[in-house]
Amino acid sequence: MTVQHIVIAKFRNDESDEAKEQVFEKLSQLLGGIPAIKDFHVGPPILPGGARGFDFGMTLRFDDTEGFFEYVQHPNHEKIIAYLQPIVKESIAYPVDSPAQSKL
């Protein structure tokens, strides 16, 4: 099984492009320090019109649910929450446990 964790969020204020880049860099730094994460992506939507007002998203991949729960309990996860809390007004987190799929 592979766990995909998807998070989408809206900024609280109208952040500048430079401020948004700093957020993406900080998140990438914190996520990179969590060994259970196999790979991740952080950034703005490539189709903003279809994003329903959400400003950025993150996808994280784990080998299994144990890895996901290691991430949830990791100190960097707490740092991410504390960092985002004052600048995010709304977010949705959606972890999915599914068998590995391959592109045909």
Describe the overall structure:
This is Stress-response A/B barrel domain-containing protein. Residues 3-96 form the Stress-response A/B barrel domain. The protein is an alpha+beta fold. The protein has a domain at 15-47 and 63-89. 34% of the residues lie in helices and 32% in strands. The protein has three helices and four strands, in the order βαββααβ. The two termini are 19 Å apart.
**N-to-C series of helices and strands:** EHEEHHE
The low-pLDDT segments are none
Number of helices: 3
β-strand number: 4
Oligomer: single chain
- What's the main sheet like? 4 strands, antiparallel
Described by the principal axes of the CA atoms, the overall outline is globular
Integer-rounded radius of gyration: 14 Å
Q: Give the N-terminus to C-terminus distance in angstroms.
A: 19 Å
What would you call the structural class?
Answer: alpha+beta
Helix content: 25-40%
Mean pLDDT: 92
Strand order of the largest sheet: 2-3-1-4
Topology, please?
Elements: E1 2-11, H1 17-32, E2 39-43, E3 56-62, H2 65-73, H3 75-84, E4 88-98
Protein name: Stress-response A/B barrel domain-containing protein
InterPro entries: Dabb, Dimeric_a/b-barrel, HS1/DABB1-like
Domain Stress-response A/B barrel: 3-96
